[in-house]
Specification:
Length: about 100
């Protein structure tokens, strides 16, 4: 029986481009088949292309979660990249902590 949830941490680290694509394709295929895939990554471009929902964590705390469009709306980013959104949210959190 197939698991319903898959948790992977930085699965593309150290992989050549071909095998990184294979991993991304397998994870996306599993997701389309109904499996919940939790992907932890610092590669924001990967998260931007692959994720249906994104959670941004800083210092062990969830700063924000939602679709990319929801996160963009929260930061007023319009068509900003996930990197732009991330930096805005992390900057807000650091400013609030100061």
């Amino acid at each position: 029986r197939e698991p319903r949830v898959l948790l992977v941490d930085e699965p593309m680290v150290g992989l050549d481009p071909h095998h990184a694509r294979v991993v991304k394709d397998v994870l996306k295929e599993r997701s389309l088949q109904g499996m919940t895939v939790f992907l932890s990554t610092h590669q924001l471009s990967v998260a931007e292309r692959m994720a249906d929902r994104i959670g941004i964590i800083q210092n062990g705390k969830l700063l924000a979660d939602g679709t990319l469009d929801e996160l963009r709306a929260r930061t007023g980013g319009g068509r900003a990249t996930l990197e732009d959104v991330f930096l805005d949210l992390v900057g807000e959190a650091e400013g609030a902590a100061a």
